[in-house]
Structure formats: structure tokens, C-alpha cells
Amino acid sequence: xxxxxxxxxxxxxxxxxxxxxxxxxxxxxxxxxxxxxxxxxxxxxxxxxxxxxxxxxxxxxxxxxxxxxxxxxxxxxxxxxxxxxxxxxxxxxxxxxxxxxxxxxxxxxxxxxxxxxxxxxxxxxxxxxxxxxxxxxxxxxxxxxxxxxxxxxxxxxxxxxxxxxxxxxxxxxxxxxxxxxxxxxxxxxxxxxxxxxxxxxxxxxxxxxxxxxxxxxxxxxxxxxxxxxxxxxxxxxxxxxxxxxxxxxxxxxxxxxxxxxxxxxxxxxxxxx
Length: 273
What we know:
This protein is an alpha+beta fold.
């Protein structure tokens, strides 16, 4: 077994980070502490990475692999440790949020992050982060939570369910959206849900939500049901994304929805008693 070694300068640097409880450090941090040149800082970071004390997150950004990671310096496998690199404000959403809220058993291969300004995808610790730009009006419904020991912002239960129905393609498909709603049913705060739906102010979303609750036999408060019914308009909406499911299907007159998703596929992930 190869033990991790440190020179005096390297030891001073690593001990200072551990004392300050630093998880993420940058080349600028090395330059500032050692008052050295940028090339020297990069060289030192390279040596510490080879020795197992740093793990590259992205160019110029590193996770500290402290003494608690053992003599071999077991690398960090939690991509959420890179949260400090994300643009502020942000919150994790869609499939990642559904997984956190126990609404799906799928492990997200892509992590979607809600932000206010458009940003290209990032590759961090071999995980792809894609950014979904929201208006300030829709930037709500998230909370601080711990994921694998890391504090991050992530959409709460009610927001995660609404997002899954609003953008099924980011949550694993309409089948997973139905499963998410079904899994969350007994835990939902329906008054909070009503407030969120009002802030969304999206008639098609409200009708899909109402139809899915009815199909999944989820009882709703009268106040919530009345709001959903009031969103039914003369123009029909589609249950599933037309790009995937097309435009053909029977019309549900109660919700004025085109049921372009076959029922057996819609309910393929749930068992309605």
C-alpha cells in the first residue's frame, strides 16, 4: 500500500485547508496562500493530485482529499460536492430532485440545475450538468438539503412533482411523471401545491395534473380541485409531449386533454388499486 507523502510546503498547505474545513480549493487559493506564481501553483496542484491529496473537479478547481480519506486517499464520488462551482442562485431539479425526494428509483445520468441565466453544460467529476433557465417568476419552491453529506439547494417535494409533470422529458418521461405523482401522493401538502400551481399559472399543466390525479385515484382538497377545474379552456391540451407521442388520441372531455399517451404506457410504472 502506497502512503501519501507531503513536503513541508505541501503539508502546511493541506493542513491549513483542513483547519479551515475547505472542501473545494482553486489555483487562486494556492497563489494567495503561498504568494507564488500561477505556473508554480499549477505545478504544486499537479503534484498534490498525483500524491492523492487533490481531486480535479474542473480546470483550476480541486476537491481536498483530506486525511480522513485514508492512507490511499480514496477519491470523492459525490458529484454534488461540486455545488460551490455552480452559478448562483441555483437549485437541483427534475430527475435529480425526484430521486432525492424518493419519487423514482432511476439514477440520473444527467443532473439538471435550474438557474436564472443561460449557461452551457458542464462536465464535473465525469458527470454532465445541464442548466435549465427559469424566469424569476418561476424561481421558487426549493430548499437546502444534504445529499451524501453535501449541503445543496434542491426543489422540494411539491415543486419536484409539478416539474415532473410540466417537463416530463427532464424527469424520465410521462411514465416517470405519473410514478412520481403516485409515490408522492400521501406526502404532498396540497395547499402548498395549490399555491405553486397558481404561481405557475399554466392551464395545460393544471389540466394534466388534474387528469393524472383522477387516473391515479388521488383524492384532492376541494379548493385544489376547484382551481384545477377552472383551468379547463376551450383549446385542448396534450397529455404527452407531441414530439414523442404525436397528436393522435381520444379526447378526455372533462379535462379537455388529448390522450396521446396509451394508458398501458402511462401507468407502466405504477399499480393503481
